[in-house]
């Protein structure tokens, strides 16, 4: 598939902006990474954004192309999904990317081991608040 055809397909099929579609389609390695990542992330714009910003920064610093990096598509997609699903915030995700880019460690395991996962279960948070308030009744008044 020629780059111009791929660019048109990215716009039509994935709803990418012309700018993002152009950048991805004209670099064979980035295009392959985008398509493989998007299969796992299932969000083309989020996949493209991570590849064209954070990952491109790492690639440039390491003077590597996407096919030369140690980071697997699977672990890269896991990281994106952690951020997309609000299990970690974007700043934590960016810091983890710096680390796993070199090590290819599983970001889910790292986030768990380092207690970086966000708690979004409101009933769990309510229990903690109730417990703290019951242990400190003077703070309520």
Walk me through what this model shows.
The protein is mainly alpha-helical and 141 residues long. Helix content is 71%, strand content 0%. It has eight helices and no strands. It has helices at 3-14, 18-25, 28-41, 44-62, 73-84, 90-103, 107-113, 122-135. The termini are far apart. The mean pLDDT is 90.
Low-pLDDT windows of residues:
none
Count of DSSP-assigned helices: 8
Helix content: over 70%
Number of strands: 0
Distance between the termini: 69 Å
Question: Could you say which structural class the secondary elements and strand pairing correspond to?
Answer: mainly alpha
Shape: elongated
**Series of secondary-structure elements, N-terminal to C-terminal:** HHHHHHHH
């Amino acid at each position: 598939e020629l780059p111009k055809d791929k660019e048109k397909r990215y716009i039509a099929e994935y709803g990418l902006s012309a700018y993002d579609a152009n950048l991805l389609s004209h670099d064979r390695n980035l295009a392959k990474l985008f398509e493989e990542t998007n299969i796992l992330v299932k969000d083309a714009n989020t996949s493209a954004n991570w590849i064209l910003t954070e990952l491109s920064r790492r690639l440039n610093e390491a003077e590597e192309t996407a096919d030369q990096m140690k980071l697997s598509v699977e672990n890269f997609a896991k990281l994106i999904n952690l951020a997309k699903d609000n299990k970690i915030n974007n700043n934590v995700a960016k810091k983890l990317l710096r680390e796993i880019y070199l090590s290819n460690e599983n970001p889910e395991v790292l986030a768990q081991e380092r207690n970086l996962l966000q708690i979004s279960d409101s009933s769990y948070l309510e229990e903690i608040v109730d417990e703290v308030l019951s242990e400190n009744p003077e703070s309520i008044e």
